[in-house]
Structures are given as structure tokens and as C-alpha cells.
User: Fold Retinol dehydrogenase 14-like from Gouania willdenowi.
Amino acid sequence: MYFLYTILAALSFYYVLKWMKRRRYFTELQRLDGKTALITGGNSGIGKETAIALARRGARVIIACRDSDKAVKAVRDIKLKSHSLNVLHMELDLANLRSVKDFCTRFLHSEKRLDILINSAGMPSVLDWTDNGFSMCFGVNHLGHFLLTNLLLHRLKECAPSRVVTLTCSIYKYQKLNFQDLNYNLLPFFTYCRSKLANIYFSQELARITEGKGVTSYAVHPGFVQSGWTCHYSFLFRMLMTVIMWMFFVPCEVGAQTVVYCAVSDEAAKHNGGYFVDCRPASLRPFARDAGVAKKLWEASERMVKLA
Assistant:
């Protein structure tokens, strides 16, 4: 009898975990032939799965990442899984503003189209600094993508209708921005929360300033995903998180569904500046919908990256 109870308890636990990880799949197969998609951090995790999905739909896919060796392997894998040869990589280090500017110069010179920009690359909560003296989380997750998007914005307008999808996280709700110390880097987890809140404000303000110009913007929480972000931490922490992620987090392919939805779906296009979870619009905390704060952050970010 004890054995039976153990089996029932194990099965119950398994199905509870499965229920907790249930997600919608985006199954619409709109073609993207003739369109170009740029994905930061496309060599792994959600970015890579997004690249596969867009390449499979016929898009020309460019993954932008720092590690060239990993990028070469990722391009090979994306081509194999998407059955598309129209995939390539370009070097980009979001922790270095000079690298961002050089990348944009090379991209604009070599690529005539940009229809979809996926700001997917991200840095977890680590106590570190960028080459320009910004906290690593805020510098990579927000400022690097802020500068990249602005320098490519004219090309996005030329190729309208075009879309910008920026990955954020639901933990934005645990912090508010402090404009006296945007570069806060004392408690890494709170720094990460602030960077994800900044992603939301950025997406909203981008939608406002490009209203009527053919560029739409979306912030996406992909869910908690079994990605490789733990590589920045100790061996023991990685082992612990491997177990936790297996139990509660979703695979990268599942996490990419909402990103692809916002990049492709006609329905998503109706919610410019929206926040999306599980392939549908979701509500935000009131403080995360403050247009005044979004505009103030945009202006502060322009000064921080010295954007004329």
C-alpha cells in the first residue's frame, strides 16, 4: 500500500509540474520571404530558437553576438534545423558602445533591409561593469539595445511596416527606477529587475515616438526558461539551478513562442507598445505604464550613450 501511495504522489507531482509549465504555441505559418531579421544573442537560448523559427518562415536571419566561435556553430545548427541557408552572424558586444556603433555601421553598409529587430541578448544579475563604466545588467540589457535600436531606426522606418521586439521579465515589478542612480549596482538581483523595467519603458516610448511611422514595438516576458544564464555563476549554483529549471522552467523553444508571435502575428500588430506573456497581451503594474517616466528614461539614456 505504501508503494502505491508513493507512485500516486509521484504521478501527482509530475502532472502538477506539467500543468505549471503549460504554454501556448504559436502555430501560424506566415511567410517572411524577402524580409530581414536581426537577433541579438541569437547564438543560444531563446534568441537561437527565435532565429530557427524566423528562418524556417523564409526570413534572412542575422544573429549578432560577441563570441564568434559560438556564433559559427549556432549558424550551422540554425541552418540545419530551419532548412534555410539564409542565416549568418555578425560580431556585436553590447557591453561596449563603440562595438555597437561599429556594428551598426557595418550592418547598414551591408544590409539593405531590416524588417524585424529582436533585442534578445541579456545579462543576468551579476556584479560587474561594462567597458563604458555602466553596471553590466543595465548597460547590456538596456543601454546597449537602446543605442542599437536608435542607430538602426532609420532603416526600420525605410522598411516599414517593421517591428522591434524587446525581451523583458515579469520580475520588473520588484523595483522602480531611481533617476539619481540609474547605474545602481549594489544588489545584483535588484539591478537586473531595474534593467527589465527599463526594457518595458523603452518599448513603450519607442512605440510612442514611432507612432504612424510604420514601426511597432513590443515587450515580451518569455516565461522562466531553461537557458544557459547560470554559466556566470559557481558550479554549485549551476547544479542547484539545473534541478530547479528542470522542475519549473520551460524549454527555450517554448519560451521563444511569444517572441515569434510578436515578430510575425497580425494580431500582435494591433497592440503597439504592449507587454506580452504567453502569446497574448498582459497587464502591467501601474508604475510600469507611466509615460512620463518612460520619456524621462529615454532622455536620460540618450545622454548616457551620448546619442546626438
Notes: Confidence is low (pLDDT under 50) at residues 10-21.
